[in-house]
Amino acid sequence: MASAAVCSPKQQQRQEEEEKDGGVVKIGRVDDVQELQRACAGDVPERYLRDGDDRPGGANVCAHAEIPVIDAGELRRGGGDGDELEKLRRACEEWGFFQVVNHGIDGELLDEMERLSREFFMLPLEHIAETLGLAPGTFAGMFGDAVQAVRMNFYPPCPRPDLVLGLSAHSDGSAVTVLQQDAGRAGLQVLRDGAWVPVHPVPHALVVNLGDSLEVLTNGRYKSVEHRAVTNGEQDRLSIVTFYAPAYDVELGPLPELVADGEPCRYRRFKHGEYSRHYVTSKLEGKKTLDFAKIN
Q1: Residue 1 placed within a domain
Q2: How many domains does the chain have?
């Protein structure tokens, strides 16, 4: 139930209606969840409720595991005779997720970015339009057509966090994703060995995860990883995401160096724009969208 103020419509897939007409995909209207929260007075609309094993309150959550933390300062200094570099390699191969500390970005800047983003989400959509001198309904159908490199997500408190997900399980279509998550609120979970591992925030750390494009380029050596966002009954949560992906006209496929010595080629070649279109027009269903690129 993330805010749709500047988010991808994929985050509200349960209320999307897709129409394919002559190759053009039209995305249905996405509600603003802050307004929805105020209007529903504690009740959760039925379309957001999850069934069975898809519910976030299940038993397959591994609360004691921790994703790796990489010290970028150590990497710049040589990694302690390669120890930190080896730690990064294992994080990419075994997790596909890690947090980065000592990355060189000033902590006050990150705090200010979080404060301004939160202030933005407190504004109703039509107040946002008016501050730009636009008609109140200007943004109603605009965001679904935008191509975004940076996305801000806002998850208001949810009265039934045991039944509602903030964001369905998925892998990212990008090559690398960098996330600044709310310093005091855990909500991100990573799928590992069949269990969901919460990503507990480290102050001023950035969360990095590998996307589908990098899995294709490495012929599956580095894998994109399923992750999801859960809701909280008491607190809201903010995240700021930056996606790094190839240009649309770039042809992707396994690097020749990684298809050698009898290693099978696991992915076909395709334009990244083709995959991006497939990704944004598919539902969030784990890593199902990557079937587009696999060689059976």
Answers
A1: no
A2: 1
